[in-house]
Amino acid sequence: MPEPVPLRGLRFGILGALEVFRDGEPCAPTAPLQRALLTLLLLHANEPLPVSRIVDGLWDNRPPRSAVAALQMYVSAVRRILTPNWAGSGPGRQHPILLTRPFGYVIRVGNDQLDVHRFRSLAAEGRRQLSEGRCAEGGELFRRALAVWRGPALFDVGRSDAIGRHAVRLETERLALLQERIGVDLCQGRSLELVGELEELCARYPLRESFHQQRMLALYLSGSRAEALGAYQSARRTMVDEAGIEPGPGLRALQRAILTGSAAPSLHCSAIRCATCLARSDAHRPQTGRGGEMTGCRASHGHPADLGRATGGQGDGVGPAKVNRQSRARR
């Protein structure tokens, strides 16, 4: 656990442009290498970062001979920016935020001071809610987590290889949570309102098959079976033209399920369901709370993500026409 942070007025943001606020006023460094240094430290917040890794990260493994001396100057400059009234180093006088450690440095921040910590904390709580069957609450926490983002991570910081790799990893985390949020929305019966968003996502990330799966299911559950099948053909053309590959098993299984009305294999269609609904092995027995009340997606929406039931597979014989009537009734 990080030590208590005495300067609560500092706030940092890396999920978008690099941001630093001191008592509500922006104070981010402007010099490129100072910005890159602060970024590297924030990416490893509360974790001592060796001088060798910082140097490699700032100069892409091609440091000048004066790199260590230059780094010490950048550290001093960033410290002055973060705490203008700091009296300077001396015996027993560590900087309250950017500390010197054996062989390196560490920036000390609380969970509420760095936006990526807030994002991950909200995402984790959302997944916990889903695991307990509270899908609506989990979906709302996912929305709050995604709202922390202000744009592409670190888009205004000079991209060394190290910072670039971290930016890609952060974007991967965001897309994974976005996929989970859409899965919850599908299970909550919001298929029609998702169609436009998923069309944009498929255009922006044409080789990400999970978004194509979710788009197909959203169209199908909105009563547009032909368009859902057309979305598969469009996805297939894109993958063949841009990557020279056929769609993966998930897309093919979903296409067959829409064509034949058979149950979609959960192994390959996990991307289109929320975690709670996917975990239920009995697709026909509602989950109940302690008092016998239904919980989770199926409680209020009949579990529309169960494509086996929605397409008239094994079970109660609910077919596309009934699903379409239910979708129109919800609208």
From TrEMBL:
Keyword field: DNA-binding, Transcription, Transcription regulation
DNA-binding region(s) from the entry: 3-109
Superkingdom of the source species: Bacteria
GO BP field: phosphorelay signal transduction system; regulation of DNA-templated transcription
The keyword Chaperone is annotated on this UniProt entry: no
OmpR/PhoB-type domain location: 3-109
Name assigned to this protein: AfsR/SARP family transcriptional regulator
Species of origin: Micromonospora carbonacea
